[in-house]
Amino acid sequence: MLHRGPPPRPGSVSSLDRDAPTCTHRGQTHDDVVRVGTVYRKTASVVFAVTTVLAAAAVVIAAGLLPERVPTHFGAGGDADDWSSRTEAVTFLALLTLGMAGLFAALAWWMPRMSMEWVNVPDKQRWIEAGREGELRRRLREDALLFGASTNVLVLSTTIAMVQAASSGTDALPVWWFVVFAGWLLLTTVHAVFIHGARYRWDRAGG
Q1: Which end of the chain is more exposed for a tag (fewer CB within 10 A), N or C?
Q2: pLDDT band at 40 (very low <50, low <70, confident <90, very high)
Q3: In the predicted model, what is the mean pLDDT of residues 156-163?
Q4: How far is Cα of residue 38 from the mean position of the Cα atoms in its chain?
């Protein structure tokens, strides 16, 4: 049946327009955004879980490889300036690993529940007014998990480097650890720029 009602006023939105999939400025439909978001969410959770398990496994393996005297503090040049017993070193590594993983797991759990007053991202009010607070919280959770995963990798590399320093006889951190640390700093910086420059800006996030 043809619609015989009055034509829509200029600038008004018809019911068909309201029911149509929302498109981003990149040509993505709402279903595309949901699909990508689901993959991103699962990826963040899996990567965080895998890196947590690897970091914990490294501590268990280190407990059987470390000698009785272990370098546990290093100067700017990578040379050891303090030592501990194997028990103290393993305890430190275990607390570091579980503490970092637990911290970011708690942050990821808290993000969907925290008061929006604590959230400080670009265009926060526009997300809320558009009824997309749930998606905003999802992105916050994903970022917490991904940053936690990168931190897990840094902790994992620290455990391996400490075992190598103690076993090599040099009592010095290997050069590759500084490369990993520099990469972690770079990745963290790039992620922060991406968050404030694109990921949460309404005009670039599918608003």
Answers
A1: N
A2: low
A3: 96
A4: 16
